[in-house]
Write a structure and sequence with these properties.
The protein has about 250 residues and is of the alpha/beta class. It is built from 7 helices and 8 strands. It has one domain. It starts with a helix and ends with a helix.
Length: about 250
Amino acid sequence: MLARVYYICAYWVSWAFFGAGGLGLNAVCAVLLLLPGRERRAPLVRETIRRLFVCWVGWLDAARLIRVTWSGREGGSLPRRTVYVANHPGLMDATLLLARIPDAICIFKPSLIRNPFLGSAAVLAGYASGDSGVDLVRTLAQKAASGCSVLIFPEGTRTDHGAALNPLKPGFAIIARRAAVPVQILVIRSDREFLPRGRSWWRVPRLPVRIDVRVDQLLPADPDRTVEATVQSAERAFFGCLAHPL
């Protein structure tokens, strides 16, 4: 009973920290959006977001709420100019990955622009809005080719309850092909469901949770590989790893 009370309190304190950090950064970014030179500030904003996420993930670990481990790569560093694709079992997946991937661009819903915690920061960071498929692919391909990392959840939404993986959309493969960059597969596994699709963030989940992010197969840039072949290779890699739960 005492343990449950602790986890509930620590969970809400964690979200309070997240909200305070988001409001502060968003307020600063809202002002900076009014000034010229937005593009020059984008890398600094992305690095600031990454560092804030590092601090928050560190807090979750120190509070014994979530333990995140990375596996599958010697040395632990991740390269830029790469399209990173990951499965999407939980609400916090983007946060966990953006804390580690360098100079990463991700996709946000157009409605997020009005979010007081994230909207202005996402725009100033140069994140891509998912309001148009053709324009979105072109924008992300240009950013990847210019040297940024690109993070994509090819399922399009959180994984359906009870499923290992939703069908993958081919956009990530098209982006990587156009930008002539590799695709790095990241597989997220957890010892229990954590904020899955259909569960609101404010409903306290069962805690603690152990999450492993595996840096799995790397698909090198190859102009002879078709989009369909890249998607099939990614699906095989995901299912092969997800077949072995934590």
